Amino acid sequence: MKTPALALLLLLSPALVLAQQEVDRASNNSPTPGNQQLERVSVSRTQTDTDLRRREPVAKQLYGRDELDKYGDTQLSDVLKRLPGINVSGGQLRMRGLGGAYTQILVNGEPAPPGFSLDNLNPAQVERLEVTKAPTADQSAQAIAGTLNIILKDAPRVVQKDLRLGLAYASEKPVINAGFTYGDRVVGGVGFVLPISVYQWNFVNETEGDRVRDKGVTGMSNVGRDRAFGRGFNISPRLNWKLDDDETLTLQGFFVQNSFRNEGENTTTVLFSGASSVLPQSLLDTTRNRGTFSANRVNLQYNNRFGEDRRIELRAGTGSGGADFDFDFFGRNKDGSQAIDRFTSGDNRNRNTSLSGKYSQYAGEAHTITTGAELERRTRDERRRTQQIDYRKTNPQLEDLLTGVEGQPFNATITRSAAYLQDEWEINKQWSAYAGVRHEQIKMASEGDGSQFTSTSKVTTPLLHLNFKPDPKGRDLVRASLTRSYKAADVQQLIARPTVNTDYEVRGPNARINTELAPDRMGNPLLKPELATGLDVAFEKYLPAGGLVSVGVFHRRITNLIRTDRPRLMTVPYADTQRYVITQINLSKATTQGLELEVKGRAGELFPSLFEASTALNLRASLNLYRSSVGDIPGPDNRLEGQQPWQFNFGADYRLKSLPINMGFSAQIAPEFDVRQSVLQSQTSLASRSLDAFAAMQVSKQDSVRVSVNGLFQPKQGTRVVIVGTPDYNRNEREPVPWWSVNWEHKF
User: How far apart (Å, rounded) are the C-alpha atoms in residues 650 and 664?
Assistant: First the structure.
């Protein structure tokens, strides 16, 4: 115990000051030994998140209502960014520093709907979060970095009526949020819960940047301001029907809808340019983006236990949703004259249906055999069109940016099927094992001008998880996992339809070759899925009063890595000149490994010489170190895209004894780092740090008030992309703002 306690003391020494004055005062009125013993007994009988984590057959981190409610967050992404080994960047969830499809997001064990954002879900509608770093057979193995499973709120055992009202402010004007949850158990074994949330947002970002292009011939700077605002609501009703002691039927709904609007102004000034440049000396860009998003899903689940040794679970689900948007761009010269107007509109519609079944049976006294199968079908219909008026032409008129491509419909059908078999084996009092194999097939078919393709990927993923108790009567665990996982290319990566960089005209007298820093993009229908072989080993020490010390290491070896190829100068049918175009290709291999440290617990248990056992101060800290290397890209810094070298989280929560007030803070720190993206291109990401804090007061038995702030002390965020061996670069930075909120909760 001395070693982890000393490590945590060094990591959290600033945090300990939070409660020192209150602790000193409370020490003069410390409880009697009998009272201390009574408190320990009460805690030991409570099923905490740590207790549930220890009982899981595979390594899994669980976070329940305490973590979800602590800061009064209205967006689930704010909860997630404070968890060990997780960060949220640009709305993307990243585990182990890896983003995109490396991290799998599930809602009640099923893939999240297309376009789903963590910002669309209020934590009040969530029962718990499950974070798994290594895949299991009964869930899709598209989880090289790990899986987040969001379990929606379940019907309560007793009547629940909660009302939450909140006011928040980040920029310009405050916004409101509200939530109401009503749940009860009624006659006939029927229980239900109806959580409803409505929310608004309003953010303003000040941006700046500069760039040099055309091999150092042209230099520009830009200053801008973006405002994003909107509103939305979500509902996740659930109905549980207990048919008898062993048979249940569950109906779960999940409905999200929001409307958004973005407005921006950006002034670009040409600092220097070549004699043949057609660029004006200054250009004012005004943008307007507005649209809607919706996702709707209904799931039906049937569970039955046949005797004491057999269980069956059947699921069926259907859903729909989509989005539409209109993006307007107005370019003006320094003197106010019109330069170019561009109008982009689009919409997409998604539909999905899924079926799954799982059967479990005890085999003797030591084995539980489970087998199952899944089938899912998704369709997507999409349309996009960009038109523009170029006032530099003799007869400016509204015309398609890409004739023959813009406005053409596109649709895709994705069929996913899977079958798996697993065995949970209690070998003896010290050893247990979880072995499984999963075979998954994904077939994509697309139709549309320039986007016809078919793609089929088949992956078999064997899995082995081992648990070892050094002391058969103790609580400590050593966990090890040897697994196979993968990442399949999504539809947008496969479509061979171009996305054009509009900084360089493609048609007419002003058509110019773009640059390597401003390429067009095109999908690659020949992409294969990435495959990863992973090893995870961790030691988890569970302390008597509920604390935890965890030390883990992991390694992933990835083949068929999908990475953006170097820009290539090509003759393309949609332009009057050659264009630089990038696409994604499969590289040979990559590796990533890391060290994960986590410590949390009561201050009195971690530092008994400094704090009384009854001191209501909880401490936590995590340090994650990451390394990676991409084989076909020269070093240094040839790491996986976006993976920071390290991440440090620390925080503390304290409950005052003199007043019914809880308070706490959580801080996240990550360094500046470079990533060599290709042979020619390198990107620098700026350092990040952030502080969240809250104070909550129980005003009465039914009422509580919570004040919180997210994102204090954040430095400028942004990137700098350079073309190796040339003076060309592109720098973009923005000034983030903190999010202040006050929330009132009433329990009826």
Answer: 11
- Tens of pLDDT, residues 489-511: 888 888 877 888 877 888 777 78
Give the pLDDT confidence of 565-588 residue by residue, as tens digits: 888 898 988 888 999 999 989 988
Structural domain count of the chain: 1
Two tokens at 17? 């000051």
Q: Is residue 515 very low, low, confident or very high in pLDDT (cuts 50, 70, 90)?
A: confident
CATH number, residue 600: 2.40.170.20
Q: Are 381 and 411 in contact (CB under 8 A)?
A: yes
pLDDT at position 8 over 60 = no
Look up residue 105 and give its two tokens. Answer: 């997001």
What percent of the chain has a predicted confidence (pLDDT) above 90? 59
Q: What would the two tokens of residue 286 be? A: 């005004």
E strand segments, 503-640: 520-521, 530-542, 548-559, 562-564, 568-570, 579-582, 584-586, 589-602, 617-630
Token pair, residue 510, equals 């002003």
Residues in a beta bridge with 317: 299, 354
Predicted confidence at residue 279, as pLDDT, reads 61
Range of the domain at 494: 2-747
Confidence band (pLDDT; 50, 70, 90) for 100?
Answer: low
Q: What is the pTM of this model?
A: 0.86
* pLDDT at residue 679 in the model: 82
Identity of the residue numbered 566: R
DSSP code of 499? Answer: B
CA-CA-CA-CA torsion sign (599, 464, 144, 113)? negative
Name beta bridge partners: 712.
691
Residue ranges of E strands in 53-188: 60-63, 86-89, 92-95, 103-107, 110-111, 126-132, 146-152, 160-169, 175-186
Query: Can you give the pLDDT at residue 93?
Result: 87
* Inter-CA distances, 86 with 10, 104, 150, 213, 411, Å: 22, 13, 15, 36, 34
For β-strands 579-582 and 520-521, DSSP reports them as parallel
User: Is residue 457 scored above 50 in pLDDT?
Assistant: yes
Q: Which of 193, 211, 258 is nearest to 230 (CA)?
A: 258
Residue 16 predicted with pLDDT over 60: no
Helices (H), 429-565: 491-494
Q: What is the 3-state secondary structure (H, E, C) of 222-253?
A: EEEEEEEEEEEEEECCEEEEEEECCEEEEEEE
Q: What is the pLDDT of residue 405?
A: 64
Across the strands, what pairs with 549? 541, 599
Closest C-alpha among 402, 406, 434 to residue 421: 434
Lowest mean pLDDT among 158-167, 301-310, 386-395, 445-454: 445-454
409, 451 in Cβ contact below 8 A?
no
**Secondary structure (DSSP) of 334-375:** TTS-EEEEEEEEEEEEEEEEEEEEEEEEEETTTEEEEEEEEE
Q: What would the mean pLDDT of 325-341 be, rounded to a whole number?
A: 88
Query: Which is nearest to 686 in space by CA: 711, 655, 719, 663?
Result: 719
**How far is residue 452 CA from its own chain's centroid?**
31
Integer angstrom CA distances of residue 231 from 49, 120, 228, 292: 33, 10, 11, 10
pLDDT in tens, 299-313: 999 999 987 889 999
- Residue 77 CB partners (closer than 8 Å, separation 6+): 88, 91, 93, 117, 118, 119
Q: Residue 652: is it exposed, middle or buried by C-beta count within 10 angstroms (0-12/13-18/19+)?
A: buried
Distance CA 545, CA 548 (A): 9
DSSP-derived 3-state class of residue 390 = strand
DSSP state of 36: H
